[in-house]
């Protein structure tokens, strides 16, 4: 019997022990992509259930609104980059958000080919109400983690994201 993360155990199946030993091993409990994904999914699920669902918002809509609240109006192409949302997905998402009157969409004054997205008054008011709730979820997640440790974690996550992003850009 072999222990797995979370206390689960796996029994060797008769006739297959040699095959199990030949496979490479990976402890998910110590595998960074799994740990990051597990935390992110848990926080997103809690925030959805605790705040976003009643406002008919998704996590990606929330990301768009928070970025616009922090940076002001953005060209749609720049907003895609700032939110890590694929451009075609963002275009559909923005259309939905325009219908919900959360954002506005207008042609750029500098180029008729560019579209600029901005928060509407309704979107701004909603973000102002939701940011404190989001901060509370973050506060619960980092309980017991010092400010110095948290700063290191955030710095490392940003660096790792840049590493992965550079690899994506190289193709």
In short:
With 171 residues, the chain is mainly α.
Task: List the main descriptive attributes of the protein structure presented here.
171 residues; Arc Repressor Mutant, subunit A; 9% strand; 7 helices; single chain; two-stranded antiparallel sheet; mainly alpha
Question: What is the fold's blueprint, element by element?
Answer:
Elements: E1 2-3, E2 9-10, H1 17-22, H2 32-52, H3 59-71, E3 74-75, H4 76-83, H5 87-99, E4 103-107, E5 115-119, H6 121-141, H7 147-170
Antiparallel strand pairs: 1-2, 3-5, 4-5
Helix pairs in contact: 2-6, 3-6
CATH superfamily of the domain at 31-142: Winged helix-like DNA-binding domain superfamily/Winged helix DNA-binding domain
Largest sheet: 3 strands, antiparallel
Helical/strand content category: mainly alpha
Order of helices and strands: EEHHHEHHEEHH
CATH architecture of the domain at 31-142: Orthogonal Bundle
- Count of individual beta strands: 5
Instruction: Identify the overall geometry.
Output: globular
Strand content: 5-15%
Count of runs of 4 or more consecutive helical residues: 7
Helix share, percent: 55-70%
Instruction: Describe the strand arrangement of the main beta sheet, using strand numbers.
Output: 3-5-4
Which radius of gyration do the C-alpha atoms yield? 21 Å
């Amino acid at each position: 019997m072999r222990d797995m993360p979370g206390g689960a155990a796996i029994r060797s199946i008769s006739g297959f022990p040699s095959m199990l030993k030949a496979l490479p091993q990976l402890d998910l409990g110590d595998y960074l992509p799994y740990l990051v994904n597990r935390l992110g999914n848990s926080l997103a699920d809690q925030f959805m259930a605790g705040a976003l669902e009643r406002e008919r918002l998704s996590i990606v809509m929330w990301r768009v609104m928070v970025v616009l609240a922090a940076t002001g109006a953005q060209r749609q192409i720049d907003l895609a980059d700032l939110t890590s949302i694929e451009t075609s997905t963002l275009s559909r998402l923005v259309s939905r958000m325009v219908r919900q009157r959360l954002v506005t969409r207008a042609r750029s004054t500098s180029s008729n080919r560019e579209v600029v997205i901005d928060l509407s008054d309704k979107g701004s008011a909603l973000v102002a109400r939701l940011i404190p709730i989001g901060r509370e979820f973050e506060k619960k997640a980092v309980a017991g983690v010092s400010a110095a440790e948290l700063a290191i974690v955030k710095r490392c996550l940003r660096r790792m994201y840049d590493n992965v992003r550079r690899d994506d850009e190289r193709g």
